[in-house]
Amino acid sequence: MTFRPALALLLALTVTCTYAQSAADLGAGGNRKAAVWPLQPTATQAQAAQLSARFLTRFHYDAQPLDDTMSAKIYKDYLKLLDSDKVFFTQQDIDQFDQYKTKLDDAIWNQDLGAPFAIYNKFLQRAVERMTYARGLLKDGFDFNGNESYNYDRKDASWAKDDAALNDLWRKRTMNDWLRLKLAGKGDDEIRKTLTKRYTNYIERLKQLDGEDAFQTFMTAYAETTDPHTDYLSPRQAENFAIQMKLSLEGIGAQLQARDDYTMIFSLVPGGPAEKSGKLKPGDRIVGVGQGDSGPITDVIGWRLDDVVNLIRGKKDTTVRLEILPADAGPDGKHELISLVRKKVNIEESAAKKKIIDIKDGDVVHKIGVIDLPSFYSDFGARSEGDKDYRSATRDVAKLLGELKAAGVQGVIVDLRNNGGGSLAEADSMTGLFTGKGPVVQVRDARGQVDVQGADNADPVWDGPLAVLVNRGTASASEIFSAAIQDYGRGLVIGTPTFGKGTVQTLIDLDRFSQNPDGKPQYGELKMTVQEFFRINGGSTQIKGVTPDLAFPNNGDDKDFGESTYDNALPWTHIPPADYKPEGDLKGYLPQLESLHDARVLKSPSWKLMLDELAQYKEMRAKTTVSLNFAQREAERKQLDATQASFRARQKAIDGGDAFLKDEDSALDDGLDPGERSLKSELKQEQDAKKAPDAQLREAAHIVADEVGMLKANPKLAADILPPGSDYLATVLAGTDKPAAAASAATAATH
User: Fold this and answer.
1) Domain named PDZ: which ranges (predicted)?
2) Is 476 among the residues known to form the active site?
């Protein structure tokens, strides 16, 4: 879990934010509308920083002293978090900051955070100046007949020499903003209005950044300097992390979004109090919040999103009253007052899900089950309290496997693409659903002691053909699971090489070690690297990740995304293997499966379309500069339009419909930022993304179906491919095939 740079945080305040924030603010004095500048650190923040340093310098897996050398690293990372594109600070600013380069360690040890706050305050000043300058350029517009260009990839650029050089950069940046809207068909007046509103909103969001944001950014720089996956979590961030892990919160069940001065309802969580009430709908604007049946209504127009969320969240079975400006009402429309009783809300959108893909094989259709797992979640609190119904990824997946077996599936795919990990214990126990009892992962601590962890399942829940679908976003606990399935020979790993995160973090509640008399969260938490994990074969997933048995084309993101891209990542290493026995061996049959795969995709229109889309994506990513000449950009736009139109036509020819592509402009650059499009448009984009064809998932299903066909044709292969004692052939394959004609409707529905 990596926190975003300050500018990204600013932008995030304007877009969708799941209703999951904490009620606690580190050093904040209640709810806020705008911060008082210059920002000043609090004593609590200084104490939290020193307490964090004590842990990081003594108990981190790769503990490093907090000295001048570390200070220089923190300084570099802090500037990167604040201004990664080098568009706010000038070289003159950096020269002034250099006095702090070796003093940030002293700032932490001496509980004097004046230096990092001075840098942050300068960032706020410069950011407002830049946005104000950009807004001032809009009055006269621009001439797009010249031969200028704008380099938007500035990660390796030098700092602008002075304000004049930075102004020139922002002139080009603003020209590009204008040109994007012009190419999308907008007139000058509409463009001027859109950009004026955009830059004004940025300034207003900047004014809402406060001391907690400054402290969070600085502590993120320190934590991530120790290693890429150590983080500092403010009380609010710690609460968010807990919600992500347990997939539940206590509130009204609404996804909120900041729009201009309003907090708008973006969507409703199915089954939550807001949805059940029937009184709220997407687009409604929250203008006031009251506590209980008669508490005063607090006006929240112009408030920061997480502060509004802070008022709305609360304990289960308590009442909150919302003053609403309905979606279809103008600014002066009649307000409505709605009372809701807060409840526990499950975030099902992030939970494991299942579906079935029908694959035609000659005259029969094989049913392949798919389990989509976004993360390895677990409600640790409910489990420790003895709640028999505590939420966990393993329990949910076990239930889904039972349902898939009842539906007669002949093979299973666990889709871990973009699953960034989660609970190590969940990865262990979920592996057992497919392997039974046995070691899953080896964990080494800072003292060099190795502990073998595993699953306690007496018998696997699914003992038939299995594949794990992975990509570059598959990380941490997902890599543990994938590696164990591969080492046991229990199933095929299909896709692209994974992220390469081979470290284990633990959460340290700093309030437990502080002199905090009132018990309210104030100091936050450390998510600190304390162990490194290794495969049961002795190798590490660190840096190298998991290499698929059967590779799919990658999108080129590995150059910018993954453990290998971090300067301070731990190196790859290995230890002796654990005591385990492989359950199957697919290596002897992999050439046959690869041959079938290669022959099939060679003839597959959907696979060829995917390859062409990937090629275009790589070409677009390789560009770092755009022309500011209208005629040239218009020609490029027309060429891109033609390519996208061709892709849409090919997709329609493949599946016979274009339900998710009816809006032809949806794939083109409209020049707008998140939060500037209509609510209807943004909701449609979300729905379209869910409906979009998935050539890689379908091909993975074909590969599993190939394995099913091999077993059907030659049951003797079961001894090599399936785990010992598997009753798959007798109870699953026997009599489960169905005629292709009878399955045609289901097959079309799952494309």
Assistant:
1) 242-313
2) yes
- Considering 476, 482, 606, 627, which one is annotated as catalytic? 476
Q: Can you state the angle between helices 188-208 and 163-183, rounded to 10 degrees?
A: 130
Residues in the chain: 751
User: pLDDT tens across 149-179, in order?
Assistant: 999 999 889 999 999 999 999 999 999 999 9
pLDDT top residue among 663 and 642:
642
Please identify which of the residues 86, 501, 527, 712 carries the catalytic annotation. 501
CB 550 within 8 A of CB 590: yes
Token pair 């409703």 is at which residue?
268
Q: Omega before 38 cis (within 30°)?
A: yes
**487 in catalytic set:** yes
Nearest to 484 by CA among 544, 404, 430: 430
* 407 touches 356 (CB < 8 A): yes
What residue has token string 């802070």? 310
How many Å apart are CA 104 and CA 221, to the nearest integer? 11
Each residue of 202-216: pLDDT tens digit? 999 999 999 999 999
CA separation for the pair 334, 659 (Å, rounded): 37
Q: Which of 487, 549, 694, 706 is catalytic?
A: 487
User: At residue 619, what is the residue type?
Assistant: E
User: Which residues, 6+ apart, have CB-to-CB distance to 118 below 8 Å?
Assistant: 100
Distances from the Cα of 349 to the Cαs of 183, 270, 373, 374, 634, in angstroms?
A: 36, 9, 11, 9, 40
What is the rounded CA–CA span in Å between residue 720 and residue 31?
Answer: 63
Q: Do 372 and 694 form a contact (C-beta atoms < 8 A)?
A: no
716 an active-site residue? no
CB count in 10 Å sphere of residue 24: 17
DSSP state of 392: B
**Pairing of β 343-346 and β 248-251:** antiparallel
CA–CA distance, 736 with 701 (Å, rounded to integer)? 17
